[in-house]
Design a protein that fits this description.
By secondary structure, chain B is mainly α. Chain B has helices at 19-42, 50-58, 64-97, 110-124, 130-153, 161-185, 190-198, 205-225, 227-233, 237-242, 247-269, 274-287, 291-316, 324-340. The relative contact order of chain C is 0.15. Classes of the chains: A alpha/beta, B mainly alpha, C mainly alpha.
Chain lengths: 279, 348, 347
């Protein structure tokens, strides 16, 4: 069981872990409100990292800093040892992609058009639709099972379909690292699982994924690496089977529970105690 | 006037503000209103000391002072009160109905309709009497608003705020163009038309007041009963229906009220546009989003603004007068900008 | 691999350059451009006295008789070309602002430009009696200074969109009131000069005015086209745009500067003809059935609208010349309302 802020202690018991994306001692917040102070987080390469924690613990703030949407007041975010703040915008966008929490679809836009806008980092002024672009868009549509929807208006899609289309746009970006900000919130359970299975597939293909998820059980089942945050700091980090325990849940969420092995996947399953009892 | 999509905000009137504080504020504002009213009776091309004004108010004695105070200034001040209240309430209603804090009555084409009718009257029909402009302006305002509503309602969706806004702005612009064309073709009447369009309370007299008092009173009455349903509508049509508000009926009532209020006000004083946009904004920042408070506060606040501006206009370049439409902009704009620079700019 | 866009597309994929467009949008844009050319030719050949087409060509080439060459080269062609160029500028400027504000009513008025330029022009007219270049300069300075003032007043650790709008409205109202005040105190001739200028007019414009406008357009239009892909990405929201590799604040600033520059050019050359900036992008969007706001289509539509409007302004009440701004509002406004009504019928 690992409950520690010290990442080096963890790596001693695991195979050598490299991380391209590293938030080095960052202090981040909005306006005058500081959310996290001197936070140090490394994202293991090739992992499916999920950040969990109660509301307003700094999960999204951390993710947005990793995506360079927020500038740290102190410290810096590094990619391959280089500060991302100094990288050209398109160069970074070819390495790190983000699925934001809220996005706007222009009026009357068609799915294929929206997805193809994800190719922006690869396009130039006179190279607006190369063979690579067409291939990437078609592949992204196929991966998210939205090829049949490609001619439909985005406005007319259901919530689940629309979210898949936004994921397709992020996929068309063809980045080795993909950040996902609450991708499953507001979806029904079937669509949530569908999306998570897609992420697992993408992960198996070699991508590094970092997602902020609300559902602890989803995180436990699909993640290969969990970062638990509270009050802007990392409380615990590691593999789900080591991290997700009743003690951690109580410490981070203030919730009493029982943790049992998931009968299907074997991963930890959090069962809240509440007022129901077995009698 | 540029109008933007409202941000998706669902607001609930805050419970933290005591109704008592707001009542106190309202009472204070009303007292201030009376003070400025009395002030306006004393001020003008010829300043009259307060003692004399007070005496002549209660014991008319046929003297010149009596005439100035009772016939000219009192009718003017009362008109300012009425027109101000009408503009303020009309602005508040329109902003609530379209869920858009940038809306003003101009988007329904009231000002454009009134101006166009007056331009036709002056330029094509040779009308010269102020009292006759009144009727043209009022009828023009009503006709154009009806047209905007009719065009905006075509189709299944009905008169949604966005459609009303688009149609209103387009029609308003077209009428403005026609007005300019007529103006160009009749350069002699250019000055008259310009003067009317500056917005002024000068020389209206009791007859004008009596004519517009009825529609304004009717409009204010409707506004009083429509406050609660409007609160529901500000949350969105669907939510409003589920709360029991009759959306279509409220919409129609509000448009009738706005037409009466803004139409009568514009007919009486010419287009004084800025007041209806600015006052509800400022009021909202102090009262919160509850329409039942916004409406009375807007009435008093706008009346105060208009009365004070009228007084200022008579004083600033005495013995000449500065039109009230110009003064309200000069007074209101800096206040609006200063308030916009405060940290928390609420959307609705 | 082909991607199904739901509409027929025109794609070019070479090694050096590639691009894609909706077939309908491309055809409609070409048709609008062709219509504009026809409009220009008609404008040149009709007038106080008509010039048959073959002589128009002769007039352009200098082979026809002196009178025809004069009329064609010095008066009619420059005016028609100016209408085209200024129309393009207006259409593109409107498209930029509507894309930035994500609102069909977005226009340069948002930052108080029109009122400011009117004030500048008025002051020049009242002080100097008004010569073309003086008034143009006054309008330009007035508009730009106003835009800057609005920006500065709205700046509080960054420019929040909503605050910018409110400050813009406040400043515009203030300036509009000042304009009315100045107008009321002016003589009748000054009022008329100001009124005519304020309605926008291409009267009396010739080669001398065409050349500087053409030169400025040569700089601005390519700049705007370069910005176009970034603007499209910005329409997805700041977060998505930022993560796709654009810098939203820089793009927005560049777009505002270019949008204002285009409108400033038109205002200086012909007075405020802002209505085309409002309707041209919307009309273009509905005709091409495209998503978002297309810059090129909007520009071509603006050109067509202005050419038609100028033609009507000259011929409708001949020999009286109407200011073109009045015609654009009437024609553009009516067409816009018709489109709006038709749009809901179809849904």
């Amino acid at each position: 069981m690992i409950v520690s802020k010290d990442v080096t202690a963890m790596t001693a018991s695991a195979p050598a872990m490299t991380s391209r994306l590293h938030a080095a001692d960052v202090t981040i917040g909005y306006d005058r409100r500081v959310i996290s102070e001197r936070l140090d987080v490394r994202i293991p390469d090739g992992s499916f990292t999920v950040i969990v924690g109660p509301n307003a613990c700094g999960k999204s703030t951390l993710l947005r800093s990793l995506a360079r949407l927020l500038k740290p007041a102190d410290g810096e975010v590094l990619l391959d040892g280089r500060a991302i703040a100094a990288m050209p915008a398109k160069a970074l966008a070819r390495q790190v992609g983000l699925l934001p929490q809220t996005s706007l679809a222009p009026d009357g836009i068609v799915v294929a058009d929206l997805v193809s806008r994800g190719r922006y980092p690869h396009q130039g002024l006179i190279r607006q639709w190369s063979v690579d672009d067409a291939r990437a868009v078609a592949a992204a549509l196929a991966a998210t099972n939205t090829t049949e929807l490609s001619a439909r208006l985005v406005d007319e899609l259901s919530g689940g379909q629309r979210q898949r289309v936004w994921v397709a746009m992020a996929l068309a970006q063809e980045t080795p690292i993909l950040l996902l900000d609450e991708p499953t919130t507001f979806l029904d359970i079937a669509h949530q699982i569908e999306l998570l299975e897609l992420f697992r597939r993408l992960h198996k293909e070699g991508r590094t994924l970092v997602a902020v998820l609300h559902d602890l059980n989803h995180a436990a089942r699909y993640a290969t690496h969990i970062i638990a945050m509270k009050d802007g700091q990392v409380v615990a980090e590691g593999e789900p089977k080591d991290i997700v325990t009743a003690g951690l849940v109580r410490e981070v969420f203030g919730l009493d529970c029982v943790v049992v092995p998931d009968p299907v996947a074997g991963s930890p399953l959090v069962v809240p105690l509440g007022s129901a009892t077995l009698s | 006037m540029t109008v933007l999509d409202p941000p998706a905000v669902a607001t609930v009137p805050p419970r933290s503000r005591l109704p008592l504080t707001r009542s106190l504020f309202l009472a204070a504002a009303a007292v201030l209103l009376v003070v400025v009213f009395l002030l306006s009776l004393c001020v003008g091309a010829r300043g009259i000391p307060f003692a004399e004004v007070w005496q002549v108010l209660w014991r008319p004695d046929g003297s010149e002072t009596s005439y100035i105070v009772r016939e000219m200034r009192m009718s003017r001040a009362t008109l300012a009160l009425l027109v101000g209240a009408a503009l303020g309430v009309a602005g508040a209603l329109i902003q609530a109905l379209t869920r858009n804090p940038l809306a003003d009555t101009g988007i329904l084409g009231v000002g454009a309709g009134a101006s166009f009718a007056v331009v036709v009257a002056i330029g094509l029909l040779g009308v010269t009497a102020l009292s006759q402009y009144l009727w043209f302006a009022f009828i023009g305002a009503i006709l154009v608003t009806a047209l905007v509503y009719a065009l905006g309602s075509i189709g299944a969706a009905g008169a949604t705020p966005v459609r009303l806004t688009l149609v209103g702005v387009a029609l308003g612009a077209v009428l403005g163009g026609f007005s300019s064309a007529i103006t160009m073709l009749n350069p002699d009447s250019f000055d008259d038309m310009l003067r009317w369009s500056a917005g002024s309370l000068a020389g209206r007299g009791w007859p004008t007041l009596v004519t517009v008092a009825a529609p304004i009173a009717a409009g204010l009455l409707i506004a009083a009963i429509v406050g609660r349903p409007l609160n529901a509508i500000s949350l969105g049509d669907d939510l409003a229906r589920s709360l029991g508000a009759n959306v279509v009926r409220t919409r129609v009532l509000v448009i009738i009220a706005v037409t009466l209020l803004a139409g009568a006000a514009t007919a009486a004083a010419g287009p004084v546009g800025f007041v209806g946009l600015m006052v509800p904004h400022v009021v909202r920042w102090f009262t919160g989003p509850d329409q039942r408070w916004i409406i009375p506060f807007s009435a008093v606040g706008a009346a105060l603004l208009l009365l004070a501006s009228d007084v200022l206009g008579r004083v600033v370049i005495a013995p000449q007068e500065l039109e009230v439409g110009i003064v309200t902009a000069f007074v209101g704009a800096p206040v609006l900008v200063a308030l916009a620079r405060r940290t928390r700019v609420s959307a609705l | 691999m082909t991607v199904d866009f739901g509409y027929r597309t025109l794609a070019v994929q070479r090694r050096g350059w590639s691009g894609i467009a909706s077939l309908r949008a491309a055809l409609v844009t070409l048709a609008l451009a062709a219509a504009t050319v026809i409009g220009v030719v008609v404008s040149i050949s009709t007038g106080t006295y008509d010039i048959p087409l073959d002589e128009v060509v002769g007039g352009l080439l200098g082979t026809a008789d002196g009178g025809t060459v004069l009329v064609v080269r010095e008066w009619r062609m420059p005016r028609a070309l100016l209408a085209t160029l200024l129309g393009v500028a207006l259409g593109m400027s409107g498209a930029i602002f509507q894309s930035l504000t994500r609102n069909p009513l977005g226009s340069p008025d948002v930052i108080g430009f029109s009122s400011g330029s009117y004030t500048g022009a008025l002051i020049v007219i009242l002080v100097t009696g008004g010569g073309y270049y003086a008034v143009a300069a006054g309008a330009l300075v007035g508009g730009v200074v106003t835009a800057l003032v609005v920006f500065v007043l709205a700046y509080r650790r960054g420019v929040q969109g909503f605050r910018l709008i409110i400050v813009g409205i406040g400043v515009s109202a203030l300036l509009a009131a000042s304009n009315t005040y100045l107008m009321l105190r002016a003589t009748v001739e000054e009022q008329l000069t100001a009124g005519v200028w304020g309605s926008g007019s291409l009267n009396g414009l010739s080669i001398a005015e065409l050349v500087p406008v053409a030169l400025v357009m040569l700089v601005l239009v390519p700049a705007v086209l370069t910005l176009s892909p970034a603007l499209r990405v910005l329409e997805l929201g700041d977060d998505a745009a930022g993560s796709l590799g654009s810098r939203p604040t820089s793009i927005r600033l560049a777009a505002i500067v270019l949008g204002v520059a285009l409108v400033a050019l038109v205002t200086a050359a012909a007075g405020p003809i802002a209505f085309i900036a409002l309707v041209a992008p919307q009309i273009a969007r509905r005709l091409t059935r495209s998503a978002g706001v297309g810059l090129i289509a909007a520009g071509v539509t603006g050109a067509l609208l202005l050419v038609i409007s100028d033609f009507l302004a000259q011929r409708l009440f001949a020999p009286l010349q109407l200011p073109v701004g009045i015609v654009t509002v009437s024609v553009g406004g009516v067409y816009f309302v018709w489109l709006l009504v038709r749009e809901t019928r179809r849904r």
